[in-house]
Write a structure and sequence with these properties.
By secondary structure, this protein is mainly α. It contains 4 helices and no strands. The longest helix has 28 residues.
Length: about 140
């Protein structure tokens, strides 16, 4: 099936809803995570939360530019009372985002939406950085 502007808007709106949920999840996790050994990663996750909000703003602008309406739906949010489980939930979200954005970049280029592809590459690089931070915190 050929990619259309309408289809990519629909997919970007799914990505947007997951950026919202990632930001909320990070905010919640940093609030409830505790323990001295988690101090550094808590600081890092606060930065991640802000970066996810930046990603959401970028996606919303791109969706608007493509004549779509940015969604206000929020994706699923995962919570836990266990620090390690929270970090694994966050890593899983980042790995999902990385896979989605790699696909989305290819789809953007297929549509010759090169500026969109460039914006998505910037987001992808940050998501990969987030995944590395989380893997390090998990000792992977």
């Amino acid at each position: 099936m050929a990619m259309t502007r309408e289809k990519i808007v629909e997919l970007l709106n799914k990505d947007l809803s997951l950026e919202y949920s990632a930001a909320i999840q990070y905010i919640q996790h940093t609030a409830v995570m505790s323990g001295a050994q988690f101090g550094d990663i808590i600081k890092e996750l606060r930065i991640h939360a802000n970066e996810e909000i930046q990603h959401a703003m970028t996606l919303a602008d791109q969706i608007d530019f493509l004549d779509g309406v940015p969604t206000v739906d929020v994706g699923k949010i995962y919570t836990s009372s266990d620090n390690v489980t929270m970090l694994k939930q966050d890593l899983s979200g980042e790995e999902d985002a990385i896979a989605r954005y790699k696909t989305r970049i290819e789809q953007s280029e297929e549509l010759k939406e090169f500026a969109l592809a460039q914006q998505l590459r910037t987001i992808l690089a940050m998501e990969q950085e987030h995944a590395m931070d989380l893997k390090q915190a998990l000792g992977k």
